[in-house]
Amino acid sequence: MSNSSALSSSCCALILAAGKGTRMHSKKPKVLHTILGEPLLGHVAGALRPLFGEAVWAVIGHEADMVRAAFAGRDLRFVEQKEQLGTGHALMVALPELKRAGMKKVLVVNGDTPLITTDTLRDFMFYAEGADVSVATLTLENPGAYGRIVRQNGELRAIVEAKDFDVAVHGEPTGEINAGIYMLNLDAVEILVPKLGNENKSGEYYITDLVGMAVAEGMVVRGLSCGSDPNLLGINNPAELAASEELRRRAIVEERLAAGVAMHGPDMVRMGPYVTVEPGAELFGPCELYGHTHVASDVIIESHCVIRDSRVESGTVVHSFSHMDHAEVGPDCLVGPYARLRPGAVMERGAHMGNFVEMKKARLCEGAKANHLTYLGDAEVGARANIGAGTITCNYDGVNKYKTIIGEHAFIGSNTALVAPVTVGAEALVGGGVGHHEGRAGRRSGRRARQANECAPQIGAFQRLYQRIAPGDAAQGRGIRRVMWEQGFQRLEELWIFRY
Question: What distance in Å separates the CA atoms of residue 426 and residue 439, rounded to the nearest whole number?
Fold first, then answer.
C-alpha cells in the first residue's frame, strides 16, 4: 500500500497492549512503565498518530481500567481482551470492532516497543503494498525468546515461537527473528482467524501463525528485513527499560542540540518526546522536562529543576531546584530557587517567585513579587503587588476552598495569614498578622491575635529563682529581665506559652 492509502479512512493501527509483563516485577501493566515520563504505550501511539490520526486502537487486558485512566482524554481507542489468551486471540477480539469501523487494512504493533519511529513504520507499509500478510524482521546474534523466522528460497514461510522451534523440523536458525510488526489485509484475516489454534506449549493463540496459514492458502506473504535496528526491540525487564530510556534520551538531546538549544552537561538532561524547546534556550544539567512542556528562546533553566506540562516564556530564569507541574510562566519572570508551581499556577510578565514559595491555582499578575517563604493557593495577586516573607493564603477550611484577592500595588507585610475568602484592595498596606476582613484600597491595616498564655506546673521553680535574684544584681538576673523586656512581658510566667 502507498503512503496515501495508509492515511486513508480504511486503514488503521492496532497496538497489542494486554500483557501483564511478569518479568517487570511490578503491579502495573508493562505498557504503563515510563520512558522519560511517557508510558511505553504512549510512545508507540505517538509514532502511529502521524500516519493514522485517530484511527489507532489498543487491545488492553491486564489492569484495563488502569490503562484507560492513564490515557483519559487522549486520542486512543480501546478494545478489551478480558482473557489474555495470546496475540492471535487479541486480534480475534479486535477484528469485529475494526470491521464495524469500516477498516480494510491494519498495522499491528507491540505496545512495548517505545523506540519505534514513524519513518520506520511508513517505510514498512510502503513495502507491504499489495500483500495480504507482511512481517518486519530483525537479525540478532542472540535471538533470545523472540520468534524465529523460517524462509524457503529467501521467501518467508513461517514464524515459529522460540519455545516451539525444532531444528529437525524448521532447520538451523539464522538469527532472523520476528520484530512484532505486521501489515494485514482484514479480508484475509477474516478467513484465517477462525482457523487459529492453540496447540503449542503455551496453549495460546499466536498471531505469528497467520504467516504459515496464509502461505498454505496461497496468499501473498512478505517479510521485510530491518537489519539489527535496536529501535524495534521490545522491553521485557527493568534492565531493558533503562537501556531503552537512555537510547531515547540521547536521541532527543542530540536532536535539540543540533537545533540550537544550549546545554551544559547534556548527559544529565532528561527530556520527554513531546517537549518543545526553542533555539536559544539554555539548560543546565541535571534537569528534567516532561509531558507537553514548552520552553521559549532565551529562557535559562538551572540545574535540578523538574518541569512537567508547563509553559515558560522568553527571558525567564528558572533557578535551581524549582518544580513546575501544569503551570504557566510568562516572559521575563524570575522563579526560585526552590520554588514550586503546582497545577493552575500562572505568572505574568516580570513576576518574581522566590525561594521556598509555593503556588497552586494562583496568579501573580504583571510585576508582582512573592520572594520568600510563601504559600499562595486559590489566590490572585494584582500587578506590582508585594507579598512579604512568610505570607500564607489560608484557602481551606477542611471542607471547601476559598479565594484570596490582592489588589494592584498592595503591600502584604511579613508573616501574614490571609484567611479566605478575603480581598485586599489596591495599594492597601497590610501589617504582619492575621487578616480575616477586607483591606480597603489605599488604607493601612494590621491585626494581632490576642495572645493566650498557659503556665507549666514547673513554673514555680522559675518564680523562686527569679525572687532570689535581685533585678540588675547578677548576670543571670540581668539576662532574665532582658528577655522579659525584649518580649514585652510583665511576668515570668508569660514566657511559657506551650502546654506541657
Answer: 9
Question: Pick the catalytic residue: 294, 323, 372, 436?
Answer: 372
For residue 206, give the 3-state DSSP assignment.
coil
Domains of the chain and CATH, by start: 3-232 (3.90.550.10), 250-445 (2.160.10.10), 459-495 (no CATH)
Gap between the Cα atoms of 94 and 88, Å rounded: 10
478 φ, ψ to 5°? -60, -40
- Which of left, alpha, beta for 102 (phi over 0: left; psi -120 to 50: alpha)? left
Closest CA to 277 of 313, 302, 224: 313
Tell how far CA 67 is from the center of its chain: 14
**Residue 161: CA count within 13 A, CB half-sphere:** 18
Min mean pLDDT across 25-29, 174-178, 458-462 is at 458-462
**Counting Cβ atoms within 10 Å, is residue 356 exposed (0-12), middle (13-18) or buried (19+)?**
middle
Long-range contacts formed by 77-83: CB under 8 A, 24+ apart: 81/18
d(CA 161, CA 283): 46
Q: Is 170 a catalytic residue?
A: no
d(CA 380, CA 228): 56
Spatial distance between the Cα atoms of 366 and 354, rounded to a whole number of angstroms: 15
Give the CA count within 13 Å in the CB-facing half-sphere of 136: 25
Polymer length of the chain:
500
- Phi and psi at residue 31, to the nearest 5°: -70, -10
C-beta of residue 149 within 8 angstroms of C-beta of residue 159: yes
Separation of CA 496 from chain center: 49
Each residue of 488-500: pLDDT tens digit?
434 433 333 322 2
Is residue 423 classed as helix, strand or coil in its secondary structure? strand
Residue 142: DSSP 8-state: S
Half-sphere exposure of 214 toward its Cβ, with a 13 Å CA cutoff? 29
Contacts of 350 (CB under 8 A, 6+ apart): 330, 331, 332, 333, 366, 367
Give per-residue pLDDT as tens, 340-367: 999 999 999 999 999 999 999 999 999 9
pLDDT band, residue 440 (cuts 50/70/90): low
Query: What does the pLDDT read at residue 1?
Result: 37
In eight-state DSSP terms, residue 279 is: T
Confidence of residue 291 (pLDDT cuts 50, 70, 90): very high
Angle (CA) 112 118 120, round 5°: 85
Q: Which residues contact 64 (CB under 8 A, 6 or more apart)?
A: 18, 78, 80
At residue 272 the predicted structure's pLDDT band, cuts being 50, 70 and 90, is very high
